[in-house]
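Anyone up for a design puzzle?
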């Protein structure tokens, strides 16, 4: 058990570093593109990416999660997975090319047809990517996985920014994602120790399918919840409105969600290896939740507070409509941080159905609230609906975790109290600086600096009380040493 905790902790450091670098590169790319292209061009590209995301998520077979969670002959599993990957990728590419007029009709823009057909190149490249990269996560080898992910993001950023600067065309963004996919494929074969070969092992395929079937449903429902709002905004508000909304999401929720995702990602294989030890699962979940909220709560609140300065300083003129949805959607990350940590636990305990069911609830709540809110208030209404949904579903997920681990909700949420209080104290310190300091880069950095210092002091002071706010972090450091 100590060795497993140490491996998980070291893997967590690599995963955290990877996420910080990947998100940093993506945000730098987004800022550069926002200053080189107009919002309508970025929105048009997003139409194409939404279409690719639809076909990928609706055909997600849950194979990676099945390989991570299940024991067995890893080479045999990878051979079967390679066969499934080739068939799926060829089907996706064909579907994107043939059905391209459909998203064009939905979004009311004929130029989407050409864009989607260009994007169809990506699943063709995916056919030959080495599926053995999933072993990185199974074995907690996040160092190699980090190199794998970062390589594609670097290629995407370099190509898209370079071509956007030269041509000021949306095609630069398409070229970037194609370059990223190509580099991913090459690196996948350089980093892995396994060399799978496609096989028609129907028995092994069936085994992977049996585990992944719930994750397929979960993937579909998750897409509707996570990206259905983008499709709704694009169809109702148009390409420029979608660009404003995506900007709000990029800076308001995506970074915080990535932080939670890193913690959950590392926790999944750890849970899977101690799933028969109820006490170890409870201790591990509380630690996971504690680390997640310690990072996400101040980031979410800080983003909401400094948005009126951040948008004009970072994105530049013409992006002011992003401010209000950014402030609202940043708060959704608070509910997401509490709720999202449950998914990895459910997968490890062979209960992926709980993810599907709670995500279905999220989809229903979002559909009921987002459609009328978007029609009435545009992107601000959509952001409000996403935030309401996050806070409605979070208590349900926590209740299910408490029942599964046979503990009380109060006991489960104890790690949340300290970071929540420290975040409120930080907000009280930062709020006056937003109006007092100038709307410049120095003013923005000043507000952020006040927030970092205020939160750090608050969390340290609260740690010496009974709240013991840094206990999860200390446990993580102990595991590292």
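Challenge accepted. My sequence:
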């Amino acid at each position: 058990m100590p060795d497993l905790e140490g491996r998980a902790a070291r893997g967590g450091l690599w995963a955290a570093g990877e996420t910080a670098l990947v998100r940093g590169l993506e945000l730098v790319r987004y800022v550069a593109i926002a200053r080189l292209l107009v919002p309508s061009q970025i929105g048009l590209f997003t139409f194409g990416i939404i279409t690719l995301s639809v076909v990928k998520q609706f055909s997600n077979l849950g194979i990676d999660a099945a390989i991570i969670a299940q024991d067995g002959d890893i080479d045999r599993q990878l051979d079967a997975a390679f066969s499934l990957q080739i068939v799926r990728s060829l089907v996706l590419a064909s579907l994107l090319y043939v059905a391209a007029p459909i998203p064009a009709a939905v979004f009311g823009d004929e130029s989407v047809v050409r864009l989607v057909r260009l994007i169809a190149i990506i699943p063709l490249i995916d056919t030959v990517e080495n599926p053995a990269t999933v072993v990185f996560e199974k074995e907690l080898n996040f160092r190699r996985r980090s190199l794998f992910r970062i390589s594609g993001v670097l290629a995407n950023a370099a190509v898209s920014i370079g071509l956007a600067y030269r041509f000021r065309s949306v095609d630069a963004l398409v070229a970037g994602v194609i370059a990223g996919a190509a580099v991913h494929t090459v690196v996948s074969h350089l980093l892995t120790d396994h060399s799978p070969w496609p096989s028609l092992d129907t028995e092994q395929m069936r085994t992977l399918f049996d585990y992944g079937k719930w994750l397929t449903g979960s993937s579909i429902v998750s897409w509707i919840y996570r990206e259905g709002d983008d499709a709704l905004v694009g169809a109702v508000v148009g390409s420029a409105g979608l660009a404003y909304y995506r900007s709000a999401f990029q800076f308001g929720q995506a970074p915080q969600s990535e932080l939670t995702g890193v913690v959950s990602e590392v926790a999944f294989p750890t849970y899977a290896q101690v799933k028969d030890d109820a006490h170890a699962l409870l201790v591990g979940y509380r630690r996971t939740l504690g680390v997640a909220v310690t990072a996400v709560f101040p980031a979410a609140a800080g983003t909401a507070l400094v948005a009126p300065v951040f948008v004009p300083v970072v994105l530049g003129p013409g992006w002011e409509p992003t401010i209000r949805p950014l402030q609202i959607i940043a708060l959704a990350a608070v509910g997401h941080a509490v709720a999202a940590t449950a998914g990895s636990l459910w997968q490890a305990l062979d209960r992926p159905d709980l993810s599907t069911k709670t995500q279905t609830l999220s989809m229903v709540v979002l559909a009921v609230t987002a459609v009328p809110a978007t029609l009435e208030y545009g992107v601000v209404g959509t952001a409000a609906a996403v935030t309401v949904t996050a806070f409605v579903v979070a208590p349900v997920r926590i209740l299910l975790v408490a029942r599964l681990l046979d503990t009380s909700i109060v006991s489960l949420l104890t790690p949340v109290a300290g970071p929540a209080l420290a975040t409120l104290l930080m907000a009280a310190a930062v709020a006056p600086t937003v109006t007092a300091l100038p709307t410049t880069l120095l003013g923005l950095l000043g507000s952020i600096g006040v927030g970092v210092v205020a939160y750090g002091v608050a969390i340290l002071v609260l740690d010496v009380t009974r709240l013991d706010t840094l206990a999860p972090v200390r446990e993580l450091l102990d595991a590292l040493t």
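A detail worth pointing out: The chain has a mean pLDDT of 84.
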